[in-house]
Design goal:
By secondary structure, the protein is an alpha+beta fold. The chain has ten helices and eleven strands. The strands form two sheets. Strands 1, 3, 4, 7, 8, 9 and 10 form a seven-stranded antiparallel β-sheet that branches.
Length: 319
């Protein structure tokens, strides 16, 4: 007698929109797998196919930017990445397990409720995994604008579905199509992708100064200048206090302005060789004025950009 229920191996899949990301043609279809919150997650880059070439742009996962005379792709814009959560198991009615397409009639109300709850949990898991992946990508590329993208008219390219590995058919789809988004454009190189993959596999976390430097980039982009200066100053102070040669006593007790005075004694290069050092000192002064008085007349878009450049130069001393 055939059992009423059967345990199946399954995966959860999404396609997530991305922005400000591009890649070299050789990276098409590249992927990285890593453990995240006790799950196995795989992030895959898109690949130009005949189907993608024929698709309307707003639904495409990728776009070939330029073709040479021989028809070869020169550059690829990334509009979406694939997210898979693997090594899952589900108890399904035998008929639903054998069925190779989604059919809501295969599940009763309690079964649907359980699948909805599990699917919702996986949906949120993929969002956290995408956020982690993006943080590492921003860290390794230095472009804070790479992020999730959302388009109200079409928020999902794929939706979150559960697939039965026994035959590859989807057996469940959430009631509302789900997808996280990530739009264009940093050109990923094979070397950068290897660095990103290595960090993900090893579970590395971006340093705190990088988090604030990337946040500042995003704030400058949207015109939030006060918050960007605060983020940049925190990033700079974090680098100075965690610089390998700075004694622990000085890290804890001295103000950042005092650390700047003892700059060379802390192991930093002589300031006369650093054209951007004066920008760091002014950055801290402007940050303090904003924090204490709410405004500083020196706060302009150009000042924020110059400060961001100085902070990135400072971070470069650590690498």
């Amino acid at each position: 007698m055939k059992a009423k229920s059967v345990r199946v191996r399954a995966v959860y899949r999404e396609k997530v929109r991305v922005k400000h990301l591009a890649m070299e043609p050789s990276l098409q279809g590249g992927s990285v797998s890593f453990r995240f919150e006790k799950h196995f997650v795989r992030v895959a880059l898109p690949k130009i196919t005949e189907q993608i070439k024929a698709a309307r742009l707003e639904f495409a996962e990728a776009e070939a930017d330029v073709w040479d005379r021989d028809g070869n792709i020169i550059n690829v814009h990334v509009y979406a990445v694939s997210i898979t959560v693997g090594r899952l198991t589900f108890m399904l009615p035998t008929a639903a397990a054998d069925h190779k397409s989604i059919d809501a009639r295969q599940f009763d109300a309690p079964q649907t409720k359980r699948l909805d709850k599990r699917s919702d949990g996986l949906y949120l898991l993929t969002r956290r995994a995408v956020d982690y992946w993006l943080r590492v990508v921003r860290w390794k590329t230095g472009l804070g604008l790479i992020d999730v993208d959302a388009r109200p008219e079409n928020p999902s390219l794929f939706g979150g579905r559960l697939y039965n590995l026994a035959h590859g058919g989807a057996f469940y789809s959430p009631r509302i199509g789900r997808s996280v988004a990530v739009p264009r454009r940093h050109r990923l190189s094979p070397d950068a992708w290897r660095e990103i993959s290595k960090s993900l596999v090893q579970g590395e976390r971006p340093p705190i100064w990088n988090e604030y430097a990337m946040s500042a980039q995003q704030r400058i982009e949207v015109g939030d200048l006060k918050a960007s200066i605060v983020d940049l100053a925190i990033a700079a102070e974090s680098v100075v206090r965690q610089f390998p040669k700075v004694p622990s006593k000085m890290r804890k007790k001295k103000r950042i302005s005092e650390l700047f005075k003892d700059w060379t004694q802390l192991g930093f290069p002589p300031v006369q060789h650093l054209s951007w050092f004066s920008d760091l000192k002014v950055l801290v002064l402007v940050r303090n004025r904003i924090m204490h008085q709410g405004h500083d007349s020196r706060l302009t878009l150009q000042f924020c950009k110059s400060s961001a450049s100085a902070v990135h130069q400072l971070i470069g001393l650590l690498t």
